[in-house]
Amino acid sequence: MLGKVFARFVEKRPISVMVRGTLECVLGADQLDAWFARTAQKQYTRTVLFSTVYDILSQVVFRIKPSIRAAYRDHEDQVGASLISLYNKLNGVETHTSAELVRSSAAVLTPLIEQLDGARAPWLPGYRVKIIDGNCLEASDRRLKALREVQGGALPGKSLVVSEPTYGLVRDVFPCADGHAQERSLLGLVLETVHADDRWIQDRNFCPCAFLCEIDRRGAGFITRQHAGLPFERVNVLRSVGRIDTGRVAEQRVQVRDAQGGVHLFRRIRVQLDQATRDGDRVLSILTNLPLRKASAKRVARLYRQRWTLEMCQP
Predict the structure, then answer these.
(1) N or C: which end of the chain has fewer CB within 10 A?
(2) Rounded distance, CA 54 to CA 135, Å?
(3) Helix crossing, 50-61 with 83-91: angle to 10°?
(4) CB neighbours (10 Å) of residue 36?
């Protein structure tokens, strides 16, 4: 039905055809427009479809075109409106809409990955490992004349991104239009998504006492690099537990008190690195509430390093 050319692609490049078909199923124009109609809270469709905005923007994101203007010029007939109308539509997309697009696409793709037996070996069997990290759009916005000569221009925005390594997907995102906002200001939204079978792996920006204690209270787990400002009390002294491939590992018990005075017992794992990090650190201190029977100190250190390696590989 689709012709001989398509048949040749199926025969010679089956994986490419499968990927394209999957993306069309999840992110096709009809699906995107129907999803937008159900999800948008304030924005509505007048002339420019959401699927058109998505297609134009994807041309820039994937570096097929250098700018929105260049992508528009190549697809002007398909847009069916002026460049100004396209910009207005793009500028009006709500952060809620962007976040829901990530969540819904991940929800649709997960069963497809499972059906194709494409899930990776779990990092911690029996649990959902989630890696959270901040992502700041570092390019300053220079389109405003008042900012063109200012060295520290306004940042376009930032977000907290949650990936699930078992499926190789970005599971959730928490966008913020204020690029200068602290990551901690978004942690309340993150806590609303924490479930008992989650195991969160995160850097020291996600080490506020209230955040860790609330994760612990909800029955979830975490592995997080200790922030220097976190108050804690030592329960016992550090004891050596051996080596991993990056350095020597030691462990101790500590306790942290929440705002209500409740005591939370955590494990503090110290890794004396053979080589300094890119920031010059030779010692890493890692906190976790995972029980020893589920994850030894060495395993916790390796899991944190896996998060680090994954973060370094992301563009």
Answers:
(1) C
(2) 20
(3) 90
(4) 21
Give φ, ψ of 2 to 5 degrees.
Answer: -90, -5
Q: Which two tokens stand for residue 97?
A: 């809409």
Per-residue pLDDT, 28: 81
**In this predicted structure, what is the pLDDT of residue 192?**
95
| Interatomic CA distance for residues 186 and 309, integer angstroms | 24
| pLDDT of 177 | 81
Domain ranges in the chain are 4-93, 99-139+154-313
CA dist 264 and 211 (Å) reads 12
Radius of gyration of the chain measured on its C-alpha atoms: 23
Q: Where are the alpha helices (DSSP H) in 162-220?
A: 187-191, 209-217
Q: What is the pTM of this model?
A: 0.83
| C-alpha span between 126 and 248 (Å, rounded) | 28
Provide CB contacts within 8 A for 309, sequence distance 6+.
Answer: none
Residues of the chain with pLDDT under 50: 1, 312-315
Structure tokens at 216: 């612990």
In angstroms, the CA 81 to CA 202 distance is 44
